[in-house]
């Protein structure tokens, strides 16, 4: 037999052990017989015990007990099955499940943080711009003449305000990238012109520190790249500022730009050819141990309270992420005390890139694409009651939700009416704002997030599974599409499809949020 069999008397002393039991205990039957089993054996019960083995690790065993007669005396037969592997598998599965839930929650927290910061753009920048603006008006003498000391204090306000605004802009740019809210205006641009524009912004600071800056075109013909010229200039300005900041007076900073089909091995690129900008400085350089981490958020070459250079440590993080959003990369080579070389890579314009840029230029703008969203939103609001009725009816007919048949309408509808009405309002607000961020759209997104989380928790109380909840959301999406197409037959098909695309994104977000809430509630 595969299972160990041990027979003990009513006094708990082992009377017999089969070969499987010998293997399980790591002892021969002669060694086992006459010894106490050491665990209370109650007939008819099942228990899980730890078997201590001679010269080996303990194993987990499932114990079953029945009464019997042995050689004319009452005894008990113990069946022992090794379940060590099963226990380890269960523990590993529980550990993996806990890690998965923790990872999902961490990702959700990170996403919520990023979305919060991205939405705070207006609230943070507006008062800062007001402070800087009024300080500039005072400096101009609008409110009256200033003496030397007052003008000095105003200059400090301006310097601190601009510095703080720069930090806020960096944090918000990073948050927008992480939240997927950063938009790029892709197009064709000349590498040399972009480099000259960036150098012009940094040159006054460099000259004030006695540092020579220059641009060198490696090729006779200035290459053309495909990207967002403003963002490329932002990256180059950041690289030049860092180079100037960490280069001693009398040093030099240079931009080399050109075209290549063989980028550096460390660049994460595919295809080609590539336009590159190399920012070369004669500064302090970077230690090998620090190179791998300088692109992480809030990491700086100089550390501690005694560092001489100010900044948030976000510039390189944002620059690399912007480069990769434009299908390029940002790399670095450096040696301590020997300067640094930062290289920005972006796709060069070939036939395919030129065609793609032309298509982007010919594609309809945001305003024309959003025309008609308000009509579909109003149609959805008018169809709210029929949509809820058909939604609830379909839930009651779903085989994966057998409990739905016995639930009341209010339990099945839950907050879905609020969710659908809010979707209609968001569509109206998106068209009226011409796709620009507004408080109404932000509030609408927050309402949908709240409803989805509460809905998941409520479904957990009703015994829903994750599959049932996912199916429910898909049913809601189908009923919303049916209502829009039924109520808005005169709306342009492009507007209807754009509306359904937006709604589908919200539905996907609702699925993720409600399942996360259901999982937390079930735990």
Task: Quickly describe the structure.
The chain has 523 residues and is α+β, with helices and mostly antiparallel strands. The protein has 18 helices and twelve strands.
Total count of helical runs of at least 4 residues:
18
Strand runs, count: 12
Q: CATH homologous superfamily of the largest domain, by name?
A: Histidine kinase-like ATPase, C-terminal domain
Count of domains:
4
CATH class of the largest domain: Alpha Beta
Portion in helices? 40-55%
What's the CATH topology name of the largest domain?
A: Heat Shock Protein 90
Mean pLDDT: 80
**How many angstroms does the end-to-end distance come to?**
40 Å
- Using the alpha-carbon principal axes, give the shape: extended
The appropriate CATH architecture of the largest domain is 2-Layer Sandwich
Sheet-strand content, in percent, reads 15-25%
Kindly name the structural category.
alpha+beta
List the secondary-structure elements in sequence, H or E: EEHHEEEHHHEHEEHEEHHEEHHHHHHHHH
Low-confidence stretches: 303-309, 360-366
């Amino acid at each position: 037999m595969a299972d160990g069999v041990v027979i003990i008397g009513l006094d708990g002393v082992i009377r017999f052990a089969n070969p499987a039991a010998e293997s399980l205990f790591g002892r021969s039957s002669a060694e086992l017989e006459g010894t106490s089993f050491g665990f209370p054996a109650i007939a008819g019960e099942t228990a899980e015990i730890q078997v201590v083995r001679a010269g080996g690790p303990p194993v987990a065993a499932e114990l079953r007990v029945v009464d019997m007669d042995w050689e004319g005396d009452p005894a008990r037969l113990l069946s022992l099955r090794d379940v060590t592997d099963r226990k380890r598998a269960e523990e590993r599965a529980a550990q993996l499940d806990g890690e998965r839930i923790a990872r999902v929650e961490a990702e959700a927290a990170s996403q919520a943080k990023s979305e919060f910061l991205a939405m705070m753009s207006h609230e943070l920048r507006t008062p800062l711009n007001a402070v800087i603006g009024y300080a500039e008006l005072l400096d101009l003498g609008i409110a009256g003449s200033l003496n030397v000391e007052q003008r000095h204090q105003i200059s400090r306000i301006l310097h601190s305000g601009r510095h703080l605004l720069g930090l806020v802009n960096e944090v918000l740019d990073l948050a927008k990238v992480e939240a997927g809210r950063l938009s790029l205006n892709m197009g064709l641009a000349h590498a040399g012109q972009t480099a000259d524009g960036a150098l012009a912004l940094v040159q006054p600071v460099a000259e004030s520190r006695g540092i020579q800056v220059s641009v060198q075109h490696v090729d006779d013909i200035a290459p053309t790249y495909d990207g967002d010229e403003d963002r490329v200039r932002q990256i180059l300005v950041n690289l030049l500022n860092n180079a100037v900041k960490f280069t001693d007076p009398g040093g030099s900073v240079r931009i080399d730009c050109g075209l290549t089909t063989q980028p550096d091995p460390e660049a994460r690129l595919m295809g080609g050819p590539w336009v590159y900008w190399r920012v070369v400085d004669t500064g302090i350089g970077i230690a090998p141990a620090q190179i791998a981490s300088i692109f992480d958020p809030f990491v700086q070459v100089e550390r501690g309270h005694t560092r001489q250079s100010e900044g948030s440590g976000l510039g390189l993080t944002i620059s690399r992420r912007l480069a990769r959003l434009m299908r390029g990369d940002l790399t670095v080579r450096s040696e301590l005390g020997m300067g640094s070389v930062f290289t920005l890579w972006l796709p060069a314009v070939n036939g395919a890139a030129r065609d793609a840029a032309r298509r982007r230029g010919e594609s309809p703008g945001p305003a024309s694409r959003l025309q008609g969203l308000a009509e579909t939103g109003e149609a959805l609001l008018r169809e709210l009651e029929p949509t809820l009725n058909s939604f609830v009816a379909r839930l009651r007919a779903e085989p994966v939700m057998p409990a739905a048949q016995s639930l009341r309408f209010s339990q099945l509808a839950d907050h879905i009416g609020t969710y659908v009405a809010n979707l209609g309002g968001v569509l109206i607000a998106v068209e009226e704002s011409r796709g620009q961020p507004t408080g109404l759209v932000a509030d609408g997104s927050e309402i949908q997030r709240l409803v989805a989380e509460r809905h998941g928790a409520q479904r957990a109380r009703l015994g829903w599974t994750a599959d049932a909840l996912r199916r429910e959301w898909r049913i809601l999406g189908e009923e919303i599409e049916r209502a829009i197409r039924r109520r808005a037959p005169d709306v342009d098909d492009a507007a209807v499809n754009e509306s359904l695309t937006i709604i589908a994104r919200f539905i996907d977000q609702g699925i993720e949020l409600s399942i996360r809430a259901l999982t937390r509630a079930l735990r």
